[in-house]
Every structure is written in structure tokens, then in C-alpha cells.
Amino acid sequence: MENEQSWPIFVQDRGERQIYLTRERWDHALDHPGMGEYLLDCALETLRKGSRKQDPYDPGKFKYIHECKDLPASYTDMVVVVKFGWQGSPSKPNNFVLTAYLVERW
Fold first, then answer.
1. Domain coordinates in residue numbering, the chain
2. pTM of the full predicted structure?
């Protein structure tokens, strides 16, 4: 079933930072084990409500994690990786999803 969502999708995280997800990046995320088109709402909810942790090697990259219901067996959480940056003149925030995947939290 084709997703009729308008792309890119813009959401705000808990810190009111605007983040966008492109169709190309979502298609990339769908290549990860357990991922399915039906998990788009979970990914967006992860960005809106999830906790985030900065990447120790790339200060502009953050991982958002959030528990989601109805994930495939053994998975408990969605992780969405976001790259934060600036673009243009004058500079404007350019915060975009790199990928998303499922994990099992113990």
C-alpha cells in the first residue's frame, strides 16, 4: 500500500527543534531488519517525544529513542538518528533524519 503522506515531513522535538524526514531517508530506514511502512507514525512519535543522546564522535548527530507498541517480536524501541546543522545565508537550521531502526532494550 502506497503511503499518501506529503514529503518531506516536518516535526518538532521536545526542545521545539524542527526536524524533517525525506522519503529517501525513510526508504533507507525501511531496509533495516523489522522495519515496515506502518512504523512511520512510531518514527515521528520518537522524534516528538523520545529522549535523545548526542553522538560522542559527531556533536551534530543525535539518537532519539522511544518505546513503541506493536513492534515486531523482540523489539521494544525505535531509534531515529538526526543530523543537526545550518544551511544558507543567512543561516537557517537544517535538521534532518539520517535513518531509523528498531532495538531491543533490556
1. 13-103
2. 0.93
